[in-house]
Amino acid sequence: MDKIKIAILGMGNVASTLVKGIEFYKNSIEGLWHPKIGGFSLYDITISAVYDIDPSKVGTKIGQIIDHRTDFSELNILPGISEDVTPVRVAKNGQIKSVSYNEFVNSLKKTKPEFLVNLISSGMEKSSEKYAKAALEAGCSFFNATSAKTATGQALKEFQSKELMILGDDLMSQFGGTAFHRGMIEFMTNRGIKVQKAYQLDVGGNQDTMNTMAEETREKKRQIKTESIAIEAPYSFRSTAGTTEYAEQLGDSRVSYYWMEAKGFLNSTIEMDLSLKTNDSTNGCNVIVDSIRAAKNALSKKDLTKADVISAYAFKNPPKKMHIRECIKAFEDAFLN
Ligand SMILES: NC(=O)c1ccc[n+]([C@@H]2O[C@H](COP(=O)([O-])OP(=O)(O)OC[C@H]3O[C@@H](n4cnc5c(N)ncnc54)[C@H](O)[C@@H]3O)[C@@H](O)[C@H]2O)c1
Fold it and tell me: Could you report the per-residue pLDDT of 194-209, keeping only the tens digit for each?
C-alpha cells in the first residue's frame, strides 16, 4: 500500500507530538482511537517536509526540536510564508525566516506531499489562507487545524474541481473542551432536560493559548466554540465558551471549567459545575491521523463527498455541521471497514 505523504506547516507543540506519535505507533496501538482507518495504520503516514518561520527553528533539523529519535529526525525545517503580524514568542527569536508565495509553491511541487497540514499559530489568518491557495496550486489537499476560515464555499469548489480536499476549520480535539461540552448537552437533551444557560471557560499554559489571548483571536475562537456547542440542542439557550486565561504553569495542559443550568419536571433545577483537565497537543493527534487516513481512502476512490463527514468529525467549524454522535457514526461507518 502507498504511503500517505504529508507536509506540516508550523513545527510547534502539535506537530512535535504528531511526529512522536507516528514513530511510537510503529510498534503499538495503545492510546489510538482507531488503529486502522480506510485500511491504513499510522505507519502508512510519512512526512515529506516541514515548514516554519521561527528563526530558531528554520534551518535546523526535526531531531534538534524533538528529543526522541524518529524516522524524520534528519528532515530540515524549511521556511514558510508569512502574511501576518508575527506572534510575540516567535518575534523574540529575531527576524523571521520566510519565502515568497511562489518560492513556497515551488518547494511544495518539489516535496510533493498529498496533504498540507496546517498547524501554524492562532491568529495567522492571512498566512493560512495563502497556504490553502498554495496547496491548491501545487496539487495537494489541505487540512486546517487553525481557526482561520479556509474551508469555505469557493475554496471547497476549487479543491473539488482538482479532485482534492480542503478539510477544516479549527480542529476539535478528541476529548477536549468543545467535544465534551457538546456530548453533555446532547445527553441532557436526549434525557428530556431543558438546558437554560451554560458556560465553558478554558485556561491553558502553552504557546497557542498565549497567542489566543490577542483580543481578535480570542473573540473569533469564542464565537466558533459557542456556535459549535449550540448545534447539540434543538432550541437556543444562553451559552458562552472560550479561552479565558493563559497560565504558564499549566504547560501543555488545559483546564476547562463548565457550568450548566437546566430545568426538569415541575421546573426543578439541575445544576452542573465541573472541570476537565487534558493535554492539548496529544488531545488533537488522534483526530488528525484519523482524518488524514480517511481522506486518503476517500480520495483514492475519488469519493470527494466524504469531505463533509471528515470535516464534521474533525473540526469545530466545518462546512456542514453534524451532531457529535452522528458525525462519529458517519465517520466510522465510512472508514472503519
Ligand atoms: N488540541 C490542540 O492542540 C488544538 C486544538 C484545536 C486547534 N489547534 C490549533 O493547531 C495549531 C497548532 O497548535 P500548537 O499548539 O502546535 O501551536 P504552537 O504555537 O505550539 O506552534 C505553532 C508553530 O507555528 C509556527 N508558525 C507561526 N506562523 C507560521 C507561518 N506563517 N508559517 C509556518 N509556521 C508558522 C510557529 O513558529 C510555531 O512553531 C494552532 O493554530 C491551534 O489553535 C490545536
Answer: 999 999 999 999 999 9
